[in-house]
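BUG-339 | component: ligand-complex export | severity: low

The export step for adenosine-5'-tetraphosphate jobs runs without errors, but we want the raw record kept on the ticket for reference. Input record follows.
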Amino acid sequence: MSAPQRVLSGIQPTSASFHLGNYLGAVKQWVALQDEHEVFYFLADLHSLTLEPPEPAALTQRSRQAAAQLIAAGVDPERSAIFLQSHVAGHTQLTWVLECLTGYGEAGRMTQFKDKAARGALDRVSVGLFTYPILQAADILIYQAHLVPVGDDQRQHIELTRNLAQRFNGRYGETFVVPEAFTPPSAARILDLQDPTSKMSKSLPDAGTLNLLDPASALVKKIKRATTDSETEIRYDPKTKPGVSNLLAILSAVTGDPIDGLVAGFAGQGYGALKTAVADAVAAFAEPFAKRVTELMADPAELDRILAAGADRARPVAERTVADVYTKVGFVPPLSRSV
Ligand code: AQP
């Protein structure tokens, strides 16, 4: 029997709550993949400094809260290594080598950098935001991951990761697995409820973002106020009906019912019926989720233990890759290193 494929993904602990886009675009796949793969899921606390650095106490709290949310979503710490990026030094050790293989122009073409930089005054945009995709490449390549379950917004970064892996392999000999992005067919890009031409994002105004830890009443209110269009027919057509199509995609992803069947079921009904169905489905998912997060947060020592155990599983894999890379580029191996 061949060895199970390795899966790697991460999420930033940058806000108190994951939003529905994070869950449907990424975390839901994380849960499904842990059954048949060897999986590593990390909280990208290093990445979370790339925009306005959070208050230290808030970052600490959000990191534990992110771990609690992964577990509440169904990521099982027995089957999945859940850990903090800052607990595995290899991520930054590998980043330096990859940065030196990345063209300045190549990094400058990353659309997420351009989008986020456009939102801040240029002198407040950090070098860390610029090099973020290269740290992300190191996060992935260091585990020799085959699959990277991410939302569609991360595709360009995965492409850069593949290019860097191929470039290193071409120059120094086979070293890295060249990973594939693994994006969900219908929920790859959940859109903002108020502006359904943009992805749902924590950095857009709150009214368009469904935070999973919002009270159910707030979620329902946001869904009822979602932008639709001036027609009345419920049809899936992302180009001309982005708001309605987004609601259908959310309903389909949360309930598991195919979009075609949902559209047929709404025949003759108006947008109010669709919004009610979406609100019911989202609230039915979010309420027990939030309750479980509260329970887990009541025992931070246990969360820290889970994160330490996850890092203990991740670290040896990361150290092996760094040792191999450092040797291949010609750094003299330290006598104390065993690999
Ligand atoms: N709207 C989305 N639809 C589908 N997937 C999404 N992801 C994020 N937004 C959507 C996926 O969530 C995972 C974690 O991403 P992250 O830690 O990078 O979170 P984020 O991108 O910081 O979340 P935001 O809200 O989008 O933050 P900002 O506003 O800072 O850009 C990734 O797999 C991502 O694809």
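Assignee comment: Attached the raw record above. The mean pLDDT is 95.
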